[in-house]
Amino acid sequence: MSDRIDQRRGPLRVYVAGPIGPADEGRRGRVEVAARAGYELLQHGFAPFVPHLWAWTIQCSMADALPYDDWSALDALAYEAWIDYGLTWVATCHAVLRLPGHSPGADREVQHARDLGILVFGSVEEVIRYSRLDRIRCFKRR
User: In whole angstroms, what is the distance from residue 116 CA to residue 120 CA?
Assistant: First the structure.
């Protein structure tokens, strides 16, 4: 992919890559950071994909069977299966937003994006700034 984004398939799809991390008390906060970034992108007319929310949805759907912060059901799905899932979605996006924080999985998603020539940004502001410079089509705001 060149520096310019092919928009024939609609608005800019942005994969949000960042730490989900171990099943500890900080996981909910990491999911919330990713959700906020995705929501901000959505507000600016982008089409974000936030894998953290998919993982959170699975946990919440199992709330009756699991203690609140027990992610063992998610962790039972092999780590590499989660990585493969993410890499598949990265390949469908125009850009990746890499959130701060330690995450070997997010680092692999970023490397995959770079290998495919997909743009990688370090903040929501960078995505917005680039879209204005390159006149990227976004969803129309009401």
Answer: 11
Token duo for residue 72: 């063992």
In angstroms, the CA 11 to CA 105 distance is 26
What pTM was estimated for this model as a whole?
0.80
- What phi and psi, each to the nearest 5 degrees, are found at residue 9? -105, 30
Please tell me the distance from the alpha carbon of residue 53 to that of residue 35, in angstroms, as a whole number. Answer: 7
Per-residue pLDDT of 27-39, as tens digits, reads 889 999 999 999 9
So what's the pLDDT on residue 120? 97
Those residues of the chain that have pLDDT short of 50 are: 1-4, 68, 140-142
Dihedral of the alpha carbons of 37, 40, 44, 49, in degrees to the nearest 10:
40
- Which two tokens mark 133? 């410079």
All structural domains of the chain: 13-134 (3.40.50.10400)
